[in-house]
Amino acid sequence: MPSPLCHALLRNLEIFKPLSDAQLKSALRGAQPCRLVAGAAAYRQGGIASHFFVLLSGRLKVAQITADGEQVVVRYVNPGDMFGLARAMRQSRYPATVQAVLESVCLAWPDELWERFVGNHPQLGAMALQTMGQRLQDAHLRIQELSTDEVEQRVARTLLRLVESAGQPTAGGIGISFPITRQDIAEMTGTTLHTVSRLLSDWRQRGIVDGSRKRIVLRSPAALARVCSDAQAAPDCSGCTSCLDGPPPAEPPPAQRRRMGAARAFLSEDAYLERA
């Protein structure tokens, strides 16, 4: 049975707040707390789907390897999120790898308890459907961005979303509250490490962002939002002030292949909803 620490954490999570004490006790039957050190995987892509989870604390990264062998960061799991919902998706294997980016604690239920879990607690079933619906909506939005936005826009929007979901006030602005590398951002936006490094260096010189190797702080979210609108208004870069040394170079064919692989990865977990 979960420890008192887990029970106390559950009461602070939105997903469990609607439950009475008796309902919460019932929902915890069969659940086991598990602790993941940074870098440890809750499960791996292609593994047999044996459990479903709720993250209590920490942060997890969801990543996929595409058919072309490219790694794509699909999303991050925040405290209170359900994940590993392969049973709800009618899949026998996990479609992605979920790995801790810092020490994390989650609750794990055996997969065979899923029907009882949602049947006895309709509120939790509704939460699961809401979670999957939100993932589908997010996937469609990101695929649209991969198809229509310039790389600068995609990176800017990604940083703004990360700050919205995991922002933490600091002395210099709003920081992303977990370690994230430039490679992670490249894999989220379907571009290259070189391009992300160039953009962040540019924005740092302009006072928009700050940070170190695994730490990003937005000093001016409003300025970063203007980068998105400026890029939309000037697709030929003639009126864009975001590049100190002229317009960015055209992305090479490998980057285009990365974008297509990213689009497939974003859809692979969620396309089943459209068929349901």
UniProtKB/TrEMBL annotation:
PROSITE patterns: CNMP_BINDING_3, HTH_CRP_2. Residues 15-135 form the Cyclic nucleotide-binding domain. Keywords: DNA-binding, Transcription, Transcription regulation. The keyword Acetylation does not apply. GO terms for cellular component: cytosol. CDD domains: CAP_ED, HTH_CRP. GO terms for molecular function: DNA binding; DNA-binding transcription factor activity. Gene3D superfamilies: Jelly Rolls, Winged helix-like DNA-binding domain superfamily/Winged helix DNA-binding domain. The keyword Transcription applies. Transmembrane segments: none annotated. Residues 149-222 form the HTH crp-type domain. InterPro entries: cNMP-bd_dom, cNMP-bd_dom_sf, Env_Response_Regulators, HTH_CRP, RmlC-like_jellyroll, WH-like_DNA-bd_sf, WH_DNA-bd_sf. This is Crp/Fnr family transcriptional regulator. It comes from Achromobacter pulmonis.
